[in-house]
Amino acid sequence: MRDRCQECPLPHVNLKLGPGLSELSVARGSGKGSSSQQTVVATRAGILNHSSNRSKWWVEGNSRRYVPAPQESVIGVVSGRSGENWRVDIGAAHPASLDGLAFEGATKRNRPNLKVGSVLYARVSLAHKDMEPELECFDAQTRKADGFGELKGGFVTHCSLQMSRLLLDPKHFLLPLLGSRFPLDVAVGLNGRIWVSTKEAKQTIAVVRCVEAVDPDGGGMDEVSVKKFLGEMEL
User: Fold this and answer.
1) Do residues 109 and 67 lie in contact, with contact meaning Cβ atoms separated by under 8 Å?
2) Which domains does the chain have, with CATH numbers?
3) How far apart (Å, rounded) are the C-alpha atoms in residues 230 and 205?
């Protein structure tokens, strides 16, 4: 197998680096004439991918364990409480920390009443290899919830990390196709977790089965096959 090397152009005004990439300062020259230049290096093996406008870059590897990265949306499960913070399982090597004030409108007297087992849609606010990741449940710019927070009811299923990124692509066919068949609410975490809420249990089962069928780690089914697959279900 041949390796292919690609360059990630640093000058993009809104450049965001995802998993597998890191920005470093490289010294050039010595003495008074020395200078430093920013460069991006890969920290793991995989395929270099980017968004359509080339502002977001990441390395798609075959790792099955999620590695937290800043600004990524994840689905977590509250596993415990530590002082004023909650411990949240996001499928990474270490649990994440969620401050009690990291919610829209939260104050010391008015905080969410989370319990062990509560499901959250959160954003990674801090991720460093030598520290446990930190989460927050609001948009960093608007300070509004914008969909983040506790996910009540519904069902959580798992998929590959690659599949979660595919589902977050507006051009991917699966979620629009399912939404045309029956009403549903879906939250997709980049940590390979999907929260699904429908009116009937059989519809939730259909969503889970379709995700498993389309997942590159599973059947890798295309749109035509999924339509036929849905047609065989009693929905």
Assistant:
1) no
2) 16-60 (no CATH), 73-150 (2.40.50.140), 155-231 (3.30.1370.10)
3) 11
